[in-house]
Amino acid sequence: MAFFSIIIPLYNKENFIENTMKSVLGQTFQDFEIIVVNDGSTDKSEEKLLLFKDSRIHYFNKKNEGASTARNFGIEKATSNYITFIDADDFWYPTFLETMFDLISKVPNQKVFSTAIEVDTSKKIISSAYSISKTNNDFEIVNYFKASVKESVLWTSCAVFHKSVFEEIGNFDTQIKNGEDTDLWIRIGLVYLVVFSWKILARYVYDAKSLSKNRNFIKQKMDFTKFEMQEKTNSDLKKFLDLNRFSLAIKSKIVGEKALFQHYYNAIDLENLGWKKRNLLRLPVFVLTFLISFKTFLANIGIGSSVFK
Questions:
Q1: What is the pTM of this model?
Q2: What is the secondary structure of the chain as a DSSP string?
Q3: Domain boundaries, the chain
């Protein structure tokens, strides 16, 4: 049995899958299996994937049902005790798995492991900023919600989970069409600490289109109501959710979804937001639109990697 099961959901990534596979197969730690789940791609993704001949690659082809279903399918097929994911357009540095193996060896009683990432803005590669106090250690054991005020310390291409995590808290929620990864991280954060390595070992490709004004994009985002009871007694969770609600409220306002804006706004404890964010909520749409364009420009030249979060 391999030490790691690597799950790759694949959907129309013909221009990226080769580089992603090369970064996986080029790991210094080689005890793994790769589970590629082709989620009904209509481009040449399958053709590019099948160029790789390695007995550790297990390829599955299924109808398109979304990334969550593809990842859950991969979890069910995984045979290893430790499961990790990488999206088909992302990249690992060669020592990603070796570092994760070392962390597991050092703190085997922990179940969730992650590493710092960098962001490709198309203009510049920048390191993500985290709300974690750095010690002299190479890694920290952190509360997910406190550690993710700036950037999430969990992300689908930089984390490793013991399979028992999914047995306890469940898999990706396929009923959530946008934000299903955040939902899973919250459920994990309510139960587990995160072992976080300061080494930058994964790369995410920044896409300004994620700030799309598409109304359906906003409406499909999770609204966090399933955590209403927990946030009443967990102040760290409450602050984390309010920061996410702030971001969604801003986006809802920009696309003219007044009721949705009010839904998110009403659930926020404004004391959990800094004065800048509180003022942003009051600004008219044309000012917010300008500020988002400006922040996106800054992100593209490597000054900051997020907008209003």
A1: 0.90
A2: --SEEEEEEESS-TTTHHHHHHHHHT-S---EEEEEEEES--SSHHHHHTT---TTEEEEEE----HHHHHHHHHHH--SSEEEE--TT-EE-TTHHHHHHHHHHH-TT--EEEEEEEEE-SS-EEEPP-S----SSSEEEE-HHHHTSSS-S--TTSEEEEHHHHHHH-S--TT-SBSHHHHHHHHHHTT--EEEEEEEEEEEE--GGGG---HHHHHTB---GGGHHHHHH-HHHHHHHHHHHHHHHHHHHHTT-HHHHHHHHHT--GGGS-HHHHHHTTS-HHHHHHHHHHHHHHHHTTS-S-S--
A3: 4-206, 210-300
Among candidates 112, 81, 273, 303, which has minimal Cα distance to 192? Answer: 112
Architecture of domain 4-206: Alpha-Beta Complex (3.90)
One-letter amino acid identity for 223? D
pLDDT in tens, 26-73: 999 999 999 999 999 999 999 999 999 999 999 999 999 999 999 999
